[in-house]
Amino acid sequence: MNKIAIVVIIFIGLGAPFVRAQSDDEGAALSRPMRIAIHFYETGEDIQAMDRFMEILTKGDPSERSMANEYINLITHRMNGSGGAGGAPAPRPGTTVAEPVNVNAASAIKRADPAASARAPDMISDGEAARSTRNASLDSLDGRSSRSTRRKSPAPRARADDMPAANKNLMRKEIRARLRSAVERSMRDIKSIDGVRVVMRENGDPEAIGIPTPLLFQSGIAFQSSSTRILSPLTKLVFALGTAQAVILPEGTAVGDAKVLDMRRTMGISSHLFNAGVSPPRVRVNLLNTQVDIPKGLLDFKG
Q1: Within 13 Å, how many C-alpha atoms sit on residue 127's CB side?
Q2: For 51-57, what is the mean pLDDT?
């Protein structure tokens, strides 16, 4: 699985996020701020927990920063879950983050997210993308409405299994061609925006995308009304890249000077992607420059 980074850097690269196990002995050795933050997390007080984990990332014990970053990712997944009881905690670090935990926790970041108005009808969900042999998924990538795709009945599995090998190969080639076309179309739209910087891989896939903060945000965590111009093709790109994982880095990460506001803004971007239908394992917010190799072309990027 590939990774892309969004700087605000987004990386696209390998692996779904796994979180570190914590023993009782380690818990006893945690600092008081970390214990308080974990307490808020376990009782479902996500906003309080996130504030304290961010404080640890900027001013706390360096040995606890990785753990704080892992908890923040769990909170982000929980905030974007649907339904569930407000006090039900997400999986403790030590478990695989595979699906969002259903917790009814509201956040200022979600209220600021423009995804509800920006969500284009031609976006496809991860569930549809995984079944890419269906014409419905391909229609979504070609810009046709998701409503029309729901009318199409998928062929019975038995018939697909009985398909001649030559036909299967032709179908795979067509799927790959359409996905590649969707990637190229999204990249053209992204590159056409002044100030955006893109680092490409040799195979033609994006490695990292640098987005100037003013293109996305007003003051605070409120999105610009024009932010859909970059968020829409960015979301389509994540879908078209299939199993790739998007890693979002806040402004200042490259030089180790990310502010709390910058960290909050990365949560806004991840919320937009989640609300558009991207599954949580496909998106990771990373607040530490020690955990990601930023491409040379973006080391001096401000955004």
Answers
A1: 6
A2: 85
User: Residue 303 domain-assigned?
Assistant: no
Q: Quick check: 131 pLDDT over 70? A: no
pTM of the model: 0.61
- Distance, in Å, from the CA atom of 299 to the CA atom of 217, rounded to the nearest integer, reads 21
The pLDDT value recorded for residue 15 is 39
Residue 186: the pLDDT is 94
The CA distance from 173 to 193, in Å, is 31
User: Residue 239: what residue type?
Assistant: F
Residue 274 has pLDDT above 50, yes or no: yes
Give ∠ CA 291-295-296 in degrees, rounded to 5: 125
Maximum Cα interatomic distance, the chain, rounded to a whole number of Å: 64
Structural domain that includes position 9: 3-298
Structural domains of the chain, count = 1
Write the burial class of residue 96 (CB in 10 Å: 0-12 exposed, 13-18 middle, 19+ buried): exposed
| Pairing between β-strand 283-285 and β-strand 9-13 as defined by DSSP bridges | unpaired
Q: Is residue 276 part of a domain?
A: yes
Give residue-wise pLDDT tens across range 192-201.
Answer: 999 999 999 9
Query: Which H helix or E strand runs over 4?
Result: strand 3-7
- Distance from CA of residue 278 to its chain's centroid? 7
| Residues 6+ positions from 104 with CB-CB distance below 8 Å | 83, 84, 85, 86
Q: How distant is the alpha carbon of residue 296 from its chain centre?
A: 22
In a domain, residue 226? The reply is yes
Q: Which residues contact 287 (CB under 8 A, 6 or more apart)?
A: 54, 57, 69, 72, 249, 250, 253, 258, 263, 266
